[in-house]
Amino acid sequence: MILPKKSLILIQILCFLALYFHHQPCSLAIDEYEFVVKEATYTRLCSAKKILTVNGQFPGPTIEAQHGDTIYVNVYNQGKQNITIHWHGVLQPRYPWADGPEYITQCPIKPGGRFRQKIIFSTEEGTLWWHAHSDWSRATVYGAIIIHPKVGTRYPFPKPDAEVPIILGEWWKEDITKVLQQMHDTGGDPNISDAFTINGQPGDLYPCSKQGTFKLTVDRGKTYLLRLINAAMNIILFFAIKKHNLTVVGVDAGYTKPLSSEYVTISPGQTIDALLSANQKPDLYYMVARAYSTGSNHHFDNTTTTAIVQYKGKYSNPTSSSSSSSSSSSSLPSLPFYNDTNAAFSFLGGLKSLADKKHPIDVPLHIRNRIFTTISVNSFPCQDNNNCAGPNGTRFAASMSNISFVNPSTALLQAYYQHTNGVYGDNFPDMPPFLFNFTDIFLPLNLETPKRGTEVMVLDYNTTVEIVLQGTALMGGIDHPIHLHGYNFYIVGFGLGNFDIYKDPLKYNLKDPPLRNTVSVPINGWVTVRFKADNPGVWLLHCHIDRHMTWGMKTVFIVKDGDQPEERLLPPPPDMPRC
User: Fold this and answer.
1) 453 by DSSP, 3-state: which?
2) For 209, phi and psi rounded to 5 degrees?
3) Is residue 364 a contact partner of residue 530, using CB atoms and an 8 Å limit?
4) Where is the signal peptide (predicted)?
5) Domain coordinates of the chain in residue numbers?
6) What is the mean pLDDT of residues 325-339?
7) Domain 369-559 carries which CATH code?
8) Helix/strand/coil for 165
9) pLDDT tens-digit map of 77-123
10) Least C-beta-crowded within 10 Å: which of 121, 339, 442, 552?
11) What CA–CA distance (Å, rounded) separates 283 from 318?
12) Domains 29-153 and 156-317+329-355 equal at CATH topology level
């Protein structure tokens, strides 16, 4: 259940009165949400199909909370397949039990099953999102999470007149389970999507889609907080609005120094809070998103999704609701070319943490655990007599430090908690097994084949960690958005080519680096992140391009308990799903 806006406003007033007269804070959050996972029929691109949804909604319902709240989500699986739900970017301090990744922190919720998930908000403030984390169900099972400031506090920027979630996604005409199955069966790339979407709608440029195009109605002179989420499965996106700059004020539920830009780059898993000033002449203006894709031999969806920013009032050559091509101001905004790495990372490099008195940062300066890991697309030999659809008749694979991760058959967190042997190994290396010119375009074929394993890295509580994520040119190379569960990390440096251990650390930003939960590693380049391992539990690290994660580009950090009771893993809930 989600309360209407009027009820939320009433609760806000009551909270303010409680704070003013009784000095007692209260919460805006609904304590309980009901998520019923079930199929529903939706029509897009001239054809109808059944998709998996939450509560029949696509995109799914928005969760709203306040800084520091705890809420519960009762997930009922009325679908035909296993499901798990992940609360992307929610740190879940000491409580990985409800984090959601299948066979990492939990066994899936089977059809007919239920799981009451406890969601613990701590330092997050801004926009996050939730999504399925089992197979490829997240293609349609996703929604926004909005974390408001505490009562009595405010945004570190002028209060917007309205707030609007803008969720970018992908749509396949085919059943997504069949897309995944074909990828498994052939060993090749999955079929590319047929459209991108904005709030579930493809937009004017696709067949049978104009009538449903999402429209944002604005008043001239007002400011709107756009809560951008990239829920796409396999593609990084550029996003822009015709004749309007966006002022970024937050990323991944953390505040940033204001950054004005004509476009943004947003990877799968990432969120951006951006202010839109309605300061143009009243008319209709396109907002658009399209692919940023750098793989040399990789097919991708090169279509463009659109929505409309529609000013209130009367103006010449108004656009009808069924066609937006008649207004001169409705032409598409210019975006960087699809493989413009400099443009993509020029935007990302401009993001800085707010780092002021009310929003301090704590970048680890003295590092105890240094990890250097390669992230690669690989291949395995075809296991039958027929040629597979990967390069040279092989099967696609992916790896971190030459290990292609294999999911266990039971939940890794439960195996750790119960001291069950034989489920995983703890030999994930802090250096890759082979050192070579990672970004050379001519690499020996034997480097393309990784080994399979379920290897994790164990970290002591409160240790300081630095990870250098090095992309390789194996299979041509491509960008990788890497997401860490249970933590935010500071992005202290990035660059193209091979990481230079002597020169590159000298250029680290240790003053105001952005704090994120998902970082884009540039094609044949590197990124360095730092964090303190102060959240005990089992936490997944993976590429958020789903085909790469499915192929094995992931590993797990196990952070051990500390000495004090408040530094130890909380016990599991009584209704954990069983395998």
Assistant:
1) strand
2) -125, -10
3) yes
4) 1-29
5) 29-153, 156-317+329-355, 369-559
6) 73
7) 2.60.40.420
8) strand
9) 999 999 999 999 999 999 999 999 999 999 999 999 999 999 999 99
10) 442
11) 7
12) yes
Sign of the dihedral through C-alpha 377, 380, 382, 383: negative
Structure tokens of 202? 């493809």
Interval 189-201 mean pLDDT: 98
Q: Which residues contact 400 (CB under 8 A, 6 or more apart)?
A: 373, 374, 375, 376, 428, 541, 553, 554, 555
* 223-230 and 369-380 beta bridge pairing: unpaired
CA–CA dist 64, 12 (Å, integer): 13
Average pLDDT estimate for 367-394: 92
Query: φ and ψ at 550, to 5 degrees?
Result: -60, -35
The single residue listed with the structure tokens 């995944």 is 180
Residue 87 and residue 388: Cα distance in Å, rounded? 36
**Domain 156-317+329-355 of CATH type 1.10.1670.40:** no
How many Cβ atoms sit within 10 Å of the Cβ of residue 236?
Answer: 24
Give the class (CATH, top level) of 29-153. Answer: mainly beta
Tell me which residue has tokens 């707030």. 163
Of 67, 70, 42, the residue nearest 57 (C-alpha): 42
Nearest CA to 105 out of 531, 489, 570, 452 is that of: 570
Amino acid at position 205, single letter: L
576: CB partners within 8 A, 6+ apart:
97, 106, 107, 115, 411, 414
Instruction: For residue 145, give every residue at least 6 positions away whose Cβ sits within 8 Å of its Cβ, in sequence order, or none.
Output: 62, 63, 64, 65, 87, 88, 89, 90, 127, 128, 129, 130
Q: How far apart are CA 238 and CA 291, in angstroms?
A: 6
Overall average pLDDT of the 47-59 stretch: 98
- Distances in whole angstroms, Cα of residue 161 to Cα of each of 134, 277, 428: 37, 10, 49
**Nearest alpha carbon to residue 151 among 3, 6, 2, 22:** 22
Beta strands in 381-455 (DSSP E): 395-400, 403-405, 451-453
Count CA atoms closer than 13 A to 326's CA, side-chain side: 9
For the beta sheet containing 304-311, the strands, ordered from the edge strand earlier in sequence to the opposite edge, are 215-218, 304-311, 284-292, 236-241, 264-266
Which residues, in sequence order, are CB contacts of 16 under 8 Å at separation 6+? Answer: 151, 152
Tokens of 206: 């696709």
Task: Determine the residue type at 79.
Answer: G
Residue 209: which residues within 8 A CB-CB, separation 6 or more? 44, 45, 195, 201, 202, 203
pLDDT at position 15 is: 54
Rounded Cα gap, residues 551 and 69, in angstroms: 36
* Burial status of residue 496 (CB atoms within 10 A of its CB: 0-12, 13-18, 19 or more): middle
Distance of alpha carbon 336 from alpha carbon 240, whole angstroms: 10
Q: What are phi and psi of 468, to 5 degrees?
A: -100, 115
Look-up of token digits 């406003």: 9
Residue range 278-327, pLDDT digits in tens? 999 999 999 999 999 998 777 899 999 999 999 999 876 434 433 444 33
Pairwise CA distance, residues 459 & 475, whole Å: 32
Cα distance between residue 283 and residue 312, in whole Å: 8
